[in-house]
Amino acid sequence: MSNSEKKISLPSEAVKIYQIIDENGNISIRELEKQTKLDRGKLEYYLGFLVTNELISRLEIESHQISLTNNGKEAAENQLVERRITKILKEKVSVSFADLSKLVKTENKEMNAGVGLLKKQGLIKIDKGQISIIDKKKEVNKELQIILEQLLSGETVDTSNFNEILLQRNLASLEEVKDILLEILIPFKEVSPSIQKMSEVSRLTPEMIRDGSWRDTRLREYNLKASPPTFYGGRKQPYAEFLDEVKQKLCALGFKEMRGPIVELEFWNFDALFQAQNHSAREWSDVYQVSNPKQGKLPKADYVENVKKAHENGYDTGSKGWRYKWDPLKSAHLVLRAHGTSVSARTLVDLEVPSKYFSISRCFRPDTVDVTHLSEFTQVEGIVVDPSITFRDLLGILKAFAVDIAENENFKFKPDYYPFTEPSVELNVLDPNLGWIEFGGAGIFRPEVTKPFGIEAPVIAWGLGIERLFMVKNGITDIRELFSHKFDWLRTAKMSRG
Amino acid sequence: MVSIKASYKKMQEMLGKQLSIEQLDDLLSYAKSEIDQYIEEEDMLVIDIKTSNRPDLWSPEGMIREIKGILEEESGIPEYEVKESGYVVKVDSQLASTRPYIACAIAKNISLTDYYIKQIMQLSEKIDFSYGRRRKRSSIGFYNLSMIKSPIEYKVIEETHEFIPLESTEKMSLERILEEHEKGKEFGHIVKEYGHYPILLSADGTTLSLPPVINSNDVGKITEETTGSLIEVTGNNFETVNVVLNILCQVLVNHGAEIYSVKIEYPPDIYIASVITPLLDKEEIEIDLDVVNKYLGTKMKPKDAVKLIAKRRFNCNSIDSKILTIEIPPYRKDILHWVDIAEELAIALDYNKIGPTKWTVLTTGGLLPETESENLVRNILVGAGGTEVLTNILTDPEILTTRVNIDKQDYVKIENPVTSTYSVMRKMIYPLLINVLSKNTHETYPQMLFEVGEIVKLIDKKVVTQSNAAFLFADADASFEDTHKRLNQLLSLLNTNYEIKQVNHPSFTEGRCGQIIIENKECGIIGEFHPSILENNQIWVPVVGFEIELPLIPSLKCKVKSTD
Predict the structure, then answer these.
(1) Do A59 and A117 share a domain, yes or no?
(2) 3 state DSSP class of B145
(3) With a cut of 0.90, is the ipTM above it?
(4) Mean pLDDT throughout A112-127?
(5) Minimum distance, in Å, between the CA of residue A106 and any CA atom of chain B
(6) Are A288 and A369 contained in the same domain?
């Protein structure tokens, strides 16, 4: 079928645009925007008709465009500094630099440049600090001023002779511009006989609905292929949202949430967890100390006394204890919570039996920040207490975490070490790309941890490596991205809930 | 965690089998260790050992001892004969309050290659650093036996005493060693705290070392040529110095050395009697197998348990119905309670073979009311168009002060920051959001961002943690009403009446800033940020915003959490 036999329906605006493109042979969208005075969205809409009817083609091009800098805009509006200087000098015999600066109303740096330029061109002379003009009739940099004004008004200007000076004086910058070139495929006159102009409206108005005139109106088709304008609605931070999801899953498994303070007593962070006071994890290099105030208040005296005994002689647990003199002052030191287990430790007071708890808490360690370390990080931790619970049940809990939270049926257990649990176990899950990765750890709290708080039932303590899981799921390799400041990521990161 | 380097080839040689990296890694898990890296060109494994209270595992020999037990190639506590050397160490009573304890042994017929000497040095360094608390609790020295005469004196000496320290060619006084020698600078502070200089002297007056700082250059080292060595551990804890010596002797025995004992003569104000070291007496612990089975959820019979515990290099010679008496190897001091033996049994059974139960502890789950409250606020602010961000709680004082026009803030400070970038606790969130805006000026406007998060502050000299919400709006057309209408929507949805009282605040433009007042309490700030802040942060559009303290909104259930 030849073109002449086919009827082509086009809105009249599209026909006009078709003619403009035809007259030019080819034209960039930017230029077309100027000629038609249509905004880009509308223009794209009409161009859509021409492209789908194969009347024109679109070609992406790159070009360099000169555009005014803030300096350049100012010079275009208020005249170049050298022109402002000469204007004032023409009215006076001679002026001091300071007075001139006030009259020209500009910064010293720019003044200096202007005066220097005029002096170089031999248009002014400076005598004993007094500046005067040599030739009152001569106009300085008139062509440059015109070019600047044309650029400001958005006219198409050939700046090629001035590019060097514009760039050098930081009046303009050269930018790479992406544009689209529209080329005519079939000349207008060949198609014009078969064009039918559509007469429709584009917008449905409240009046049309009310007065029923919509019945007699054909609503113009939208160009559904046109890309929409960018839009960023409000959204939650992707990592925060992932943590919400983990919380929800833990709640579904019957875990209650617990929270604790960020600035913590060493008592809860270490002593209650049976970490000896000279343990290397308690050194300066491993935990942030607070400098104001340095000390907090220890909890109820009998808990403190029992913990002290647990350290010194094992309390009544049958343990040997650490056999040293326990220092309550050290225990009252304030530190930044170094692990979520301190929140679990606080929960041991008045613990309900049976019960299950979790916390998602920000923790802090003096690490140098790099791709695998943050100065603060999130720990997911919790406890399960039940008089009949066993080590095998603990493995069952870890299995549930692997299956329900990491969504991974391939898991294995390895012996692990925590100062406060015995036995201790590490949970590994098999990632299809990375191999076995550590996903969690758990253990049964030592009796030296639980008995001082009057708990006879076994308490399982567990923790999950949730940051790693999020990174693996989202292909993130740099842990710093979790706290990313990049709007680009915050606005566009894909949601992975499923 | 402790990290060591070892040759992959030598590990396989010692195990007497060829193993892939993965197979070796699997076996190492029984020694609570894992391969962190394998550098093929150097035949080098970097192995992480997870336990900080098992220094006996911090060498390839120690890990292999454990693995051979699991593979049932060896079993029970490794035994070796100790002969008397006739050497004596006399301890000075002046050391009673500083570094009183010493444990020594003599190893003969040693033939160590350079690789194994380096391995032993690595082990000693790791033990000194971590288990020995950077040599404060204990430190190790090796000496060439042929240059030492008994009795050896461990005593206090004057600071003018001189010897040639390791890595040096000239005689230096003890005082000078602390000031000038690299090790003196690193460990000298321990000696300075003592207020006197401990020294080890051979009977002929030769200096062995200045514990715990540095050995003598001629006596205090071993090489491939050394056949006899004196090993010495000094420290402030009797048990520690002895267990460390036992670990070292065990490693040397693995290389065919013969161990000889040394008699330590303590004065009565340090220890009740003389001690012959190494002290290889085996401690015992009793376990009730019924209790252990209940704890683990297993069904071990006494004879199973005896076999299993031997796989973990313990001995069990006595069974009285369900009560087992277990002997602990003399290189381990980490067994405090029967739960420690329960773990050994569980590891010998293999966690993966014990297998998980289908656990059920029926409880009701749920979020805390304060988290629910925060989520409510987050949802409203997302609806208001906000992009949520997470920023650091531990942050840069500059971001909290000069960058938002504030001179001084009474925030909680860190005594030992790694860098000043992370050295104070935020007490407000908005300065961090300003910082986020300053890093995104190339992104499309309007930019609306918020954070609901924890802050730390001082109330009556007490440190508390609480949650705040901050919302910022940045756009060429931004004006006060953009933030006001959002605050209004937030508080009206939360059924809370509020007022705004005009105030001056250094972060905001005068006349364009107010305090948010709820029930006559100041609970937040709202306004247009001062242009100087925008300029300072290179944000080239107006920014308006608010921050509100969530515990002060009566309809929410957020709490102020005190540390005390």
Answers:
(1) no
(2) helix
(3) yes
(4) 82
(5) 19
(6) yes
